[in-house]
Amino acid sequence: MTARVALIIGAGDAIGSAITREFAASGLTVCAARRNGERLGPLVEELNGAGHCAHAFSCDARKEDAVTALFAHIEAEIGEIEVVVFNVGANVPMGILETDSRKFFKIWEMACFAGFLCGREAARYLTRHGRGTIIFTGATASLRGAAGFAAFASAKHGLRALAQSMARELGPKNIHVAHVVIDAAVDTQWISENVPESAALKLKDGIVNPADLARNYVMLHQQPRNAWTFELDIRPWIEHW
């Protein structure tokens, strides 16, 4: 039988790795990709050691040739892509007076343009298969631009618009496109090192656990097509809307 593949692009140490683990646990072959693919070694070893099937790739999602080559290799050598998750982060706080054109463009490339490249390539393969799921990771900045986040917010707004358009175009072709708004802090190394109250928040479930977050991605993929969710907002019970 042809392997059924979940491709996670932006498989970082926290959210991306958690998503990879959850799709592996659901029975799919997982392909994890990030710019420095060698850093995925421990994750792939962990999953394969637990009896799953996992592969690691280096890919700069801003580069069209790299993205097309990644999809082509997986389809030719590993299996049929069924799920694609775009989880590339670019959350860089920066005042508008300190935001030069190079920095703005780089953030847009990472958070929006790369999403277009990966989403388009996913659509090419999934439309051939006649089914599948594409999930984009959003953030608070997808909905509102905070002070000091002009570049990031503009890129995340653009990614959300891309997802909306793709959902309307691809839904009738049996492809589920979803956008996950993570409107809260997630339990990552950066948060633990830079948010003094993070330990206290964890004790009272006031910060998002990556593993619990990741289960929502698998849930979206497994939804029946008569009740698809486009946008899912994630936040802890104590988080203000």
Textual characterization of the structure:
This protein is of the alpha/beta class and 241 residues long. It has one domain: NAD(P)-binding Rossmann-like Domain (Rossmann fold, 3-Layer(aba) Sandwich). The protein contains eight helices and seven strands. The protein has a seven-stranded parallel sheet with strand order 3-2-1-4-5-6-7, sandwiched between helices. The chain is globular. The model has no long low-confidence stretch (mean pLDDT 95).
Topology summary:
Layout lengths: L2 E7 L5 H11 L3 E6 L6 H9 L4 E5 L5 H14 L1 E8 L14 H29 L2 E8 L10 H21 L4 E8 L6 H6 L3 H6 L6 H13 L8 E4 L7
Parallel strand pairs: 1-2, 1-4, 2-3, 4-5, 5-6, 6-7
Helix pairs in contact: 1-8, 3-4, 4-5
Structure summary:
The chain has helices spanning 15-25, 41-49, 64-77, 101-129, 150-170, 189-194, 198-203, 210-222, and strands spanning 3-9, 29-34, 54-58, 79-86, 132-139, 175-182, 231-234.
Number of structural domains: 1
What helical percentage do the residues reach? 40-55%
Uncertain segments are none
Which CATH architecture would you pick? 3-Layer(aba) Sandwich
Q: How much of the polypeptide forms β-strand, as a percent range?
A: 15-25%
End-to-end Cα distance: 46 Å
> Outline, from the CA principal axes?
globular
CATH class: Alpha Beta
Separate helix tally: 8
Q: Write down the Rg.
A: 17 Å
What is the CATH topology assignment? Rossmann fold
Strand order of the largest sheet: 3-2-1-4-5-6-7
Strand tally, please? 7
